[in-house]
Design goal:
heterodimer; A: alpha/beta; Rossmann fold; 7-stranded mixed β-sheet; 7 strands; about 40% helix; about 15% strand; globular; B: alpha/beta; 5-stranded mixed β-sheet; 15 strands
Amino acid sequence: MKQLFGRPAGLTDVLQRYCPGCGHGVVHRIIGELLVKLNIRERTVGIAPVGCSVFADEYFNCDMIQPPHGRGPAVSTGIKRTRPDCIVFSYQGDGDLAAIGTAEIVHAAARNENITVIFINNAIFGMTGGQLAPTTLPGMKSTTSVHGRDIKKQGYPIRVCELLAGLDGPYYLERTAVNNPKNIIKTEKAIRRAFQNQIDNKGFSLVEILSMCPTNWGMTPVQSTKWIEETMMKYFHLGEYRNRAKEEK
Amino acid sequence: MAEKKLMYGNHAIVEGVLAAGCRFFAGYPITPQNEIPEFMSIRMNEVGGEFIQTESEIAAINMLFGAAAAGKRAMTSSSSPGISLMQEGISYIAGADIPVLVVNVIRGGPGLGNIAPAQSDYYQATRGGGHGDYFTITLAPNSAQELYEFPKLAFELAEKYRNPALILADGLLGQMMEPVEFSEQVVDPSTLPEPPYALSGCQGRERRVVRSYDLKPGKLEELNLRRHAKYQKILKDEQRFEAKLCDDADVVVVAYGTCARVCDAAVRMAREKYLKVGLLRPISLWPFPRNILAELAKRVEDFLVVEMNLGQMIDDVKLATDCKSRIHFHGRPGGAVPTPREVYEKIDNIMGGAR
């Protein structure tokens, strides 16, 4: 009998502790498949974040390191510079990358560090229980903005792709989503490109992925996918924000 | 004889680090250690290593975490405020049992303080420094020669015990020029073996994970206890010190680094007056050379601790001597350096002045 579907060799054979409807599992699978398809699993070092996906060091079937909150791009730099033949990816959430780790991501991008960054934007702090994130939308409720994000006091969300596109350094920046099959396929293409750029020594590549957090949004998984389409995408527009490959053509 | 050069202490560190086969430096400018990254940027380029001027000390220590977890010798240098910023990373590195080398060229504090030499980071260095139960191996050189020699020793100890190592210098040691003999056997980095934890891609082996967390019940306690056993072994086997004229001494001065140089002169002044005074210089601040102090305390009634702070190492002297002797103190905080005359007068005072 021919097996048509199974767990990719890029993921370990353990139960992933994500909530029903969470987007992390989808993105993990894409990466796990690409580690095999691009034949890089055995030379990859992954960096887990702090947050719900802190356990990524148990889930990706490759060498992994778990650094302090927000410091993934700095740790990636240390690994990539000393082992340039390794493929290094940093997997980060919005608190990790756009709050506490803002300096590290901006400077890794400015140096055009030859690494791949997978950035999960679900507009909320997941693991700590639904607090305001740097990406929480204006008016959006969180456990530290119970009446909704007040832009007068809590300021505006940070659009990471647009922010980094203001730098000359990065080679590739794209925002995608994993709320429906079409967008998941696009996300797969973007992540593939982000890894391929590193394999080709092109430089810093980041894919920002709009991802569901039904638990902390107080929605069902289906409502969450719709909310991304109808609300999140109005603020965080999908698309390529930098692609030097096209400029080089 | 090996080649000899007149060098700044800060430049001597650079040569010592490269002689140890380290090819990765990440750091952020801060006085009084700027000569280290400046000279390192030139020398690292010459030897084909990586030099990164980072956006912050936080980034620097985390780059070290990455490079060292990848199995390579990696170092950074900074001064007090910058070392405070690195404590988060040092705690994670200690929690992941990864060896790195951090050099602290101490300046006056707290806060921005000043840029003058000080020893006010002794507690921070010898009590772990960041959050959690951990210690860092801490060496205190007192000359440009030792600034050149200690990086290799620090890497060897760090790797032997899989633990971060610190070198504590100060603004004076870093900035003064002294002859340095290039006595160390130069290490070719390609001859260093790949450590068992090295992240390098899992080809032909099980995947490896470097991390400082474990949420499984009881597991973190187990890890901490295992680390505690390691610390006990370091405390037992790695105490380093220099004892001068202690055999017949009635008073033993205890000082390290710059203070030990000052006290060395003060002890010579005292000996010229036929006062029986010795000098005990801790070289490893953690592990503190408690055994020799305990031994001396059986006979010596007076110890004089001299520090460029308000009294930090004095606690370790009291613990080591079990408070059996009288422990006197002379300290200068805020970037002030004691003079040999000051220390001599303190000795004279302890000995009753009439002798």
